Every structure is written in C-alpha cells, then in structure tokens.
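Hey all, sorry for the wall of text incoming. These are the two entities for the joint prediction.
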Amino acid sequence: MTQAVLDRPTGQERSFVRVQEIIQECGASESALIPILQRIQDEYRYLPEEILSYVATVLDISPATVCGVATFYAQFSLVPKGKHVVRVCDGTACHVRDNRALIESVRKRLKITGKQITSDDNMYTLEIVNCIGACALAPAVVVDEQVHGQMTGEKILKLFNQIDAKDKEAEK
Amino acid sequence: MSKEFITVDGVHVELNGEKNLLEVVRKAGIDLPTFCYHSELSVFGACRMCVCEVEGRGLQATCSTPPSNGMVIKTNTDKTMRIRRMALELLLSNHCGDCPSCSKNGNCRLQTLAQRLGVTKVRFPKPQFSHEIDDQSASLVRDSGKCILCGDCVRMCKEVQGIGVLDFVGRGWDAKISTAFGKSLADVECVLCGQCATCCPTGAITVKSEIDKAWKAIYDTKKTVVVQVAPAVRAALADHYGVQSGELAMGKLVAALRRLGFDRIYDTSFAADLTTVEEGTEFLGRLASGERLPQFTSCCPAWVKYAEQFHPSLLNNLSSCKSPQQMFSSLAKKHLPETLGVEAENMVVISIMPCTAKKFEAARPEFAENGVPDTDIVLTSQEVIRMMDEGGIQFNELAPESLDMPFGIKTGAGVIFGATGGVAEAVLRLATLGADRTSRKIEFHEVRGMEGIREAEVMVGDKNVRLAVVNGLANAKELVAKVESGESSYDIIEVMSCRGGCIGGAGQPLPNDMAARERRRKLIYECDSLQNLRNAADNPYVQEAYTKWLQSPNSHVAHELLHTAYRHRRRLSGQVIDVQESTNVDAQKVCIKVCVGTGCYTKGAYNTLHKLMARAEKKGYTDRLEIKASFCFENCGGGPSVEVDGNLHSDVTPDSVDKFLKEVVEPKLGLGKQLVNH
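and here's what came out:
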C-alpha cells in the first residue's frame, strides 16, 4: 500500500456510505443536524466541506446554514485533526495551576506555531478546552478520551513518547 | 371592545394590532433608531438601539416586546441614551470607518445614527482591520470590514428570498457573515437579486459599480453610446427627486443623460412591448395546444437563475423569451448600426436598470455574439444618480426632453413591467384582444397589488385562464411546490424576485423599503394611465420592427433574435466526495462520479451509488474503480447522472445499474463476456 493510503483515517473507503446511514438513523430533518454532524465527525474525525454540502442536500437546507452550525460549536472541526487529539484543560483550576507551561511544552514537542493546532505529520492535534470537570486533578489533559491528571511539562513528554512507541508497535 | 392604550413618554397611544412596542413608538412619532429591525423580516433583537424603559420591567428592546394595555414606557432617558451611544461606539470601534471613500457614504445607517445620536468620539482602540472583499460576482461586492453583524442580509435571503446564501459563521469575536465555506457569491447559489444590499445598513454589501466603464465609453469619441432606460427607473427617480410623475422624471433623465454624453436614449418599455407580443403569442400557442403549461415568465434574471438552480424540471415551462433588456440589446446590436450609420464595433449598448441581477444577465455567454456582449454595460438607478452627481447635473432644474426614435415609443403595457403583476397584465391586454381586435379591456386590477401571491381567473376567448402573480422568491418557492404537487394549477405564472417587482430592485436608490416601493408602484400605474396607447400590440414601432426585420411574432427570425434557452446550473462550486479509491495499481482503472446534487438525489442517486458499489464488489472488480460522489453536472433534467472517465450518462437509476455496469463500465475495464455469468 502506498503512503498516501496509509495516512488516511481508517475506514474512509466506507465512510461516505456511513454518512448516509447516519442521516437515516438520525432522521433527515433540520432538527437532527447537530447529532448528524457529531456522528459524521466521529466517522471522519472532522467535517469535510463536501460532506457538509451533502448533508445540506439531503436535509434540504442551505449549505450556509450547515456551515454556520458547524462553525458555531467548538466541538466541530472543519479541518482534519491528527490521529491523536490532546485536549489541555483551561478551566480556572487548571489555569491557576500553570497549564501555560504545559501548553508551551506540548507546542514545542509537536513543533506547532501560531494558529496551527495539528502537527505537520498529522499525528497530534492540540486543543485548549474549557473545564473538563477534573479540577481536583488540575492541571488536567485528555488524550484520546483518557484523562491524565496533575500533568507537568515533563510528564506529558513521557506520555507522547509512550503513544509514539505504541503506534510504532502497532505498525509492525 | 374597549380601546387599549399604552403611554409613550407621557402621551397616550392607542394600540391597533401592532406586533411590537417599536411599531407603537414609531406610530407615536418617535423614530427609535434600529439596525436589525425590518418590518418584513423576523425580529432579531441584536442591535439594542431600540431599548426603552418599560415601567415595572426595566430596559426592554422594543422590537421584541409585544405591547400590552396600560404599559408605560419612556424612550428617552439617561439610561436609554447611554446604552444607544455605547452600542454605537462599540460598533464604530469595530468598523473600518473608511467613510469618505465608501460607496455607501451619505446613505449609511451607521453613519446617520452616529451623527443623530451625537457620537463624536470613539473611546475604544480599533483592532487591526482586514477587509475580506468579495467582488467576484457580476452584481454585488461584499466587504467584511464594514459589517456590523446585524444579520439583516441573512434573514432577507432566507425569509424573503427563501435561499439562505448567507449565514453567521464562527462565534463570539470570530463571528462573521459568510457564504457556505467562505466561497465567493459567484460560486454559490446566490441569484444576485441584491435584496441583501437593500437592507444592509452599512457598506458591507453594495452594488458592483460599472460607472467607470460607462464614463470610458462616453469619453471615447469614436464610440456611439446607446442607452436604454427600464420602466421602474423613472418611478424611482421621481420618488427620489420628489418629481411629480414618472413621465416627467423620465423626461428630465433624458435631458440629464444627453448632457452627460450619452448619444441615443431609448426606452426599455419599447422592448417590453416587444416581449409582451412575443410572450403573449407564445402563451396563446401553448394555451391552444395545452403543452408546457403553466407558462412561467422569464423577464426576471434572478428568477431565471433561481429556476435553473433549484427547479430543473420547470425550465421547459419558462417562456423562451429573452428579457426586455436582452431583446432591446439584440435588436440594437443587430439593426441600430445601420439605422444610425455607425460601425457596429463602435456602438456601445448601456442599460439603466433597477436591478443588480441584470448585470449577471448581461454577462451570460448566450447573450453575446463572438464574445461581445449584447448589453455592454449595466448601470443601476443608484449608479446613474451617482453619475449625475459626478457630472454636476441639477436634476430638478432640468427641462424635460423627449426620447430618441425608433426605440423611444412605448405603450402603457411596457411601462407596467416595472411593477409586480405588470407582465401578466400586459400579456392579458394582448391575449384578450381577440382576432378582430375589438376587446378594449385595459385594466386588470385583479393582478395588481403588493401581496406576495395573487391569483386571478380571466376569460381569454372561450378559455378560462388561471393566473398567478408572485413576488419574492420565498413566495415563488411556495407556489412552485404547490404546482409541482398538483395542489394548485395555473396557465400562466408571473414571477418577480423582488418584493413589489422591479420597482423594488436592489439597484434602486435607498431607502428601498416597502413604503418606497408602494409609492413607486403608484407612479408606475399613473404613468400607464397617461399613455394613449396601452396595448403592446398597438405600438407602431413594434409593428414596424416586425414588418422591417422580424416578420411575425414567434417567427423563425424572431426566435433567432428574441428567444433563448435555459440550462441546468450547479449551486456550489468545486465539491467532490471521495467514496472509494482504486487500490489495484496494476490494472486499468475507471473513474466513476455519481451526482448527488439535489436534482439527482431526489431521483434516487444515492441508491444508484450504493447499488453500483455493491454490484461491483460482487462482480469482483471493485478494486479497479475509483468512485466519487459529485455535486451537479448541470444535467439535472437527465438525473441521476453518472460520469464515467469524463463521459456523462443520464438516467442511471438503481434499476438500470446492472445494465449500466455491463454496457458502460465493464467494456472500459476490458472485461468481456467472461463476467456476464459471474
């Protein structure tokens, strides 16, 4: 298999078929737009423009409306995300426990600058999110749905190394 | 029932079914400022300019507060004034403020209200400004740096025009008004009616100017500049300059245009008469044969584009007549050079229109000969007013002058094209004339009015003709749905995209609200009543045009010159969904694109796609197919459409997938009979 095919999110070959299934399961009505977008994002890991147009076609609403909803909520992304999503909590508790240093160390490790949130190799996406409700563990980080508490710049680098190692193992 | 009152600044005001406090306050003679309130749109309540103190309830936005008996409100207090000024100051701090060079200068509500409310200083620092300018469409320019996020354009497009080209995207500080995925208006389903520009309080959406092109043609001494003036323009100018009648305003405009350097000045109403004759004849033909009914009018370019994009199955029902603008220009480009004794390439045809979509229409490739458009330049009423200002013309001081011949003669039927119901009435005047031309019924009040949808029944010969007249595309959408479902049935349907018809076109001077449109409507019908000739068939120059050039209505020559065809048109540019990649790198592969645009989708295109994939998998060559879902091959009439290696195939229904694979796809894969029994 070529590199290009390897890099693609798993199951993309069939994901367009999934889109139609999702729309049918949720009901093809405007009121089901948000659950439809949530589940499509689970499938594609982001919301591709042309898929949003397709949703607009099936739901018989304007593409601009779909685009408006998809850009309003922070949970939706219109740009592809990395294989692993790292969410650093920026709630009050985490903020006062110096999550800044944490964020800086992640950005440095992933070599992301400015408004960029996804590393060039498409492996990691960094998101700064509001309170995740794990204040007792501040500063908290969620990596691929798993919460890691009392994070430090050093600890998170170890975590990245572990994930990388696991990925390499899986590739073999 | 006893009367209900509220107290506005100590004055009793009777309630009379007003929807909200704002209307009551305005009725009391106090002009509360607003950005986001328009009586014809839904209430948004965003700008907070209309806040008042309501006793017992504190500060309320009056636009979104229903009035109730006994309410006591104060419109002008320390608190309300502070809030209004603060809101304005914050808006101004986030606005580029390029006023002197803005085309909305002098017509901008932000500017007016800042002045009216005495905001002379903005205390907040301005952020760095980036103007995202979209000037790719033929008609409109959007400038994000001037947008105040009132959402008027969003609601206008969605509620009045039923399209929804624009919406809010992003949130909080990043919120902005945008088309789908930030595309240009030229690349989305926008019909360029420009109604968003009529309600935009600032310069964020404006009419694309062709003034410089017009000056260039005028300044070029080699060029003969021919200009046509649309019917609705005279009404708007009369209203704008406070001139008594549309006819007088037209005479003054002719004088003004001569002074500005236009060489020959004609009336689009002449071409409207020609349209009436062609379209009326076409209608009588269809009525007799019963084919392609209901006949939809085709004068409104925004409606035509809308139908091309959203109702592919109706295109056959649209009248094949060009609009009056294009009929005029075809005729002018073909025959005027000889009449005027000028070289064809040295003649420039300019039209003065109430409409922004006319700019798009003029640029349609089918209205060009060897790449030269029939209509070279389209100026809106707004632009012609600006040109008169630039040229120092004192409109009110001018003595009226008469139009040039031969295209300056019109009948009343050609003038009423400017108002909703006018085309239908003009056709009725012609159709009821009868073979012996004895019927002299002129006024058909049943098709006049400002309601969104009007219906009437009129006897034409021995046939009872059912008409519908609709204005506003949301109303058209509703009517078309009823026609398609069979709930309603008509013989002829007039559609105008803008509320009120062309008099409310987005090229008209501001304010362009419903009150202004009502005044212009009256002016149009007055103008019609004043004409000696009111039936298009009586226009002597139209008759002469047939004798000299066109033979007879709907003749072959007339068809060549005055009729056109429509095409299916995609809504969004550049959209393809990768469904399946070809993984077999060794064998020859085939690229299949299935259209999943609305027209094809509703005809079962998804099931076609699904079955195609399932069958290919079963037959064992799925790895050699590259499958994509595409949006619109502009072949909506033949849907579901499938493209195979660049060749388009129509009517690929789920039932015909097997046949399609066998006859089209498998030969391309080099698969012969061995697969038939697979």
